[in-house]
Amino acid sequence: MTHQIVRKANSLIEATYKLSAIEQKIVLYLVSTISPSDEDFKPYQFKIKNFFEFIDYSDTNYTWLEENLLSLKNRNLRIVYENEAGKKVILNVNWLSSSKYVEGSGCVELRFDPNMRPFLLQLRNRFTNYHLSNVVQLKSQFSIRIYELLKQYEKIGKRAFGLYDLRSTLGIDEDQYQQYTDFRKRVILAAQSELQEKTDICFTFKETRVSRKVDVITFFIKSNVLKPVAFDEAEIIVPEIDTEAELNSLLDLLPEAYKTRKSIKKTIEDSLIKNGFEYVMRNVVYTNEKSSNIKNYRAYLVKALNNDYGLAYMEDIQVKNEAEQAKQKTFAEVEKQKQREKNQIDQERESREKARVFIASYAPETLEAYAEEARKRLSPDSLARYHRKDVIGLFEFKRRLEDVVMEHTGLRKPQPEAASEFPETTPAGQEMKAAAE
Fold first, then answer.
1. Mean pLDDT across the stretch 35-60?
2. Nearest-angstrom CA–CA distance, 78 and 16
3. Could you tell me which residue, 122 or 326, shows the higher pLDDT?
4. Reduced to 3 states, what is the DSSP secondary structure of residue 300?
């Protein structure tokens, strides 16, 4: 059971759907029964007892399983992919077309919807696989989805999602976990804990804020060495390296004209066995970048693989990326400063509105005492404008009165006395005049 493999097209992993943890385990259990050589779907059977053992459920009650199967049969998923012509296709489909149980047989027979063929059968590239055992203990429906989404990018090491896109992919309703703190706790942190404890990968994450809200979550993915598990027969499971999948991923990086050339496939396969995936990947990327004007792509690729030109190339890219990140960090600091200034303006506006409420409620003698203090804060020119009832002078007096009230009511700390002039010819003066009018 622990050696069963789940293989899914990447477009299926990224599909939008909502399934409970049990429903997902039914699907994944069923997917693991598909043979890589299957050319078409067939009725896939499994023993109910074995499935209940898989999910660690003690009661082998078919009625309970049937309820989940019927629920699953009505579940829709939305898959977005490109067809052979390069056109975007949006497919809405159900997982299962039928389920069948013969009383007393102890087996259930399930069929996938025929439209699911391209995403589960004869997968040659753009797919992800993992051991079924990695999801068996996961309790949260979101932990299972996040595991797959991150497993897909394990070799790259990180993956970023817009918060809205991540919620949509995970099938989270708009009225569910509306507060980010709830989403973070119930979804992200719960998955982080479960994956660390129970699967072959783990992650940390970074939150990027725009307009004071978290808009982007970047996951940093690492392999996770689990504690050895004791089996009845002292069985030790050694994770397999799927060389075929790695080779297909590397061939997928090649320019279209070279993907089917046997000589290049042999070159890449030999280097993969000798040097590993990361080594070959960086040199293929280097060759793609540098050989655009070179006719003999194969010769250039062989030279890069022999001399590891891709190492320095990737290092240069990393330095460039770090410089860009520093630039973005500076930009982010400027944006933060702008936001702080905006917050100060908003706070000032709110405090003045509260001060006007206080002013309207004061007894005449209290208001006059504050007004006298406000007049003392006016410069001679401002005071002269105030006495002749000039619109700017009246506005300046109103502002000083609000200052006095804000300080007396604790809306603002007392400020050093400083007279401010706002001639009508300045933008500030014109703004005040417009506000006064």
1. 82
2. 5
3. 122
4. helix
